[in-house]
Design goal:
With 157 residues, the protein is an alpha/beta fold. The protein has a single domain, classed as Metalloproteases ("zincins"), catalytic domain (Collagenase (Catalytic Domain), 3-Layer(aba) Sandwich). Helix content is 47%, strand content 19%. It contains six helices and four strands. A four-stranded mixed sheet has the order 1-2-4-3, with helices on both faces. Helix 2 packs parallel to helix 5. The longest helix has 17 residues. Its EC number is 3.1.-.-.
């Protein structure tokens, strides 16, 4: 796949993961390559602070507070642009610490998860969740990232 991934970094992401841009690019490209029906596409990934993602979460989803990753699929007429992702540093960092995961592994998982949403996948029911999580596991294994769901409960989150 001919993929274009733009990464915008705000805040202290580089203090948490020194090679954060490379980790993000690698994970996004791997997820995009997992879409057999796509031959090209571009995405933009915003790595930001909790406050900024909380504002986006409120404005676009009507939910209070930050979340780990938000996916904004591109609308009709966007050409090859698949959409945008926004990730909240504080949320991602707290999750990685609480789950005992390496920072780069957790970021990779969330980027893959977000890109799969941009590709039209979802996890609103058990069947969708199982399909999406299996693809996440496959993509992440190809990146050398351990199964992110191995130590979690049956909800996958």
């Amino acid at each position: 796949m001919n993929a274009s991934v733009e990464v915008e970094i705000e805040g202290l992401w580089r203090e948490w993961i020194a090679d954060v841009e490379a980790v993000t690019q690698r994970a996004a490209r791997a997820a995009l390559a997992a879409a057999p029906d796509r031959t090209s596409g571009s995405i933009t990934v915003l790595l930001s602070e909790d406050e900024d993602v909380a504002e986006l979460n409120h404005r676009f989803r009507g939910k209070a507070g930050p979340t780990n990753v938000l996916s904004f699929p591109a609308g009709p007429g966007a050409g090859d642009h698949l959409g945008d992702l926004a990730l909240a540093l504080g949320v991602c960092r707290r999750e990685a610490e609480a789950q005992g995961k390496r920072a780069a592994d957790h970021l990779s998982h969330l980027v893959v998860h977000g890109v799969l949403h941009l590709l039209g996948m979802d996890h609103q029911n058990d069947a969708e969740a199982e399909t999406m999580e299996q693809l996440e596991r496959t993509v992440l294994a190809g990146l050398g990232v351990p199964d992110p769901y191995a130590s979690q409960d049956d909800t996958g989150h």
